[in-house]
Amino acid sequence: MSLHRRFGTGRPGTTLESKIGRMLSDLVLACRQIEADIAAEEERAGISNRSDARYPILARSLNERCANLKGTIATLEKRVMETSRLDAA
pTM of the predicted model, to two decimals? Predict the structure, then answer.
């Protein structure tokens, strides 16, 4: 049994789509913040060319993290589209 149901703390009418929607907005916000951090690190280092050997390690890892988040966002958006298509049928 879910703790939300047990203690009455769940939100009435909360659907999977709304949960995924909130998750998507959080992920998009996180990705924007990471992109801002990448830009700041590149500016600090004075190097924005990712193929340069002196490109900051922090910026490299942030780029990977952002790419992973974008993949997650795309997967969730696809799931929402499939779910809404099934609900419409």
Answer: 0.74
